[in-house]
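Hey L., structure's done. Input below.
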Amino acid sequence: MSATDFSGRVAVVTGGGSGIGEACAVELAARGASVVVTDINEDAATRVAESITGSYRLIDGGYTAV
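Output:
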């Protein structure tokens, strides 16, 4: 089975700082999506956003990986 390509798409992952949310954010980024990582734990959201793109910015308490 082939993986879906999400290039040019934006994914918003709530609870993306750990667990299933983190796994979803990482996989979506690997498939080409720009991922918005949000979490109540700012450090965790930052860590995930940095790990998938190396770039992020604060947006209303969430982080966007670009």
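The helical segments are 19-30, 42-53. Residues 13 and 20 are 10 Å apart (CA to CA).

-- N.
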